[in-house]
Design a protein that fits this description.
By secondary structure, the protein is an all-alpha fold. It has one domain. Helices cover about 80% and strands about 0% of the residues. Helix 2 runs parallel beside helix 4 and helix 3 packs antiparallel against helix 4. The N and C termini lie far apart (about 50 Å).
Length: about 160
């Protein structure tokens, strides 16, 4: 019962983040209110915080899948919500149009998010292999998962090191 409670809480958190992200798209263009990113550092810090929450959440649930605390189907639902969140963050990055001094940092972080999305997708492949009881392919898939996660973390460092002073 506790694992289902954790799943529900995770889905609620991810749905709230998704809702907040899509709020920017829901504001009509004719409205006198407009969103202009003027503090690129804080915007990037906010995206990093969301990414961190998503990473912690999906990592916990992936461990629960490996420990057989949740089913592959339950995991895939959580991973789908996470993937939607990441895609939303990538879309916001594409439209943010940072100034030249921030572009390298933003591009590196956007690539980190893309690798993180590939990581989540590969964890879904792992869940599907568990579901289909194809244990002979699990180690290879785990290696791919670790590779995507490692590349994502490397790109975060590159983004941090590319920030203007």
């Amino acid at each position: 019962m506790a694992s289902k409670k954790g799943i529900v809480i995770t889905i609620i958190i991810l749905a709230a983040i998704t809702g907040g992200s899509f709020l920017f798209w829901a504001i009509p263009l004719e409205s006198p209110i407009s969103l202009v990113v003027s503090d690129y550092e804080n915007y990037l810090n906010g995206v990093k915080e969301i990414h961190s929450i998503l990473d912690q959440s999906i990592s916990t649930e992936f461990q629960n899948l490996k420990d057989e605390k949740i089913s592959p189907d339950e995991y895939m639902q959580i991973a789908d919500v996470t993937s939607t969140q990441i895609s939303s963050q990538i879309s916001e990055f594409v439209t943010s149009k940072p100034p030249n001094e921030w572009q390298d940092s933003y591009i590196s972080y956007m690539e980190s998010l893309r690798n993180f999305n590939s990581y989540v997708t590969e964890t879904k492949v792992y869940a599907n292999l568990v579901k289909e009881e194809k244990t002979d392919q699990l180690e290879e898939t785990l290696a791919k998962i670790q590779s995507y996660k490692s590349e994502s973390e490397t790109l975060i460092e590159l983004s941090d090191n590319s920030r203007p002073e």
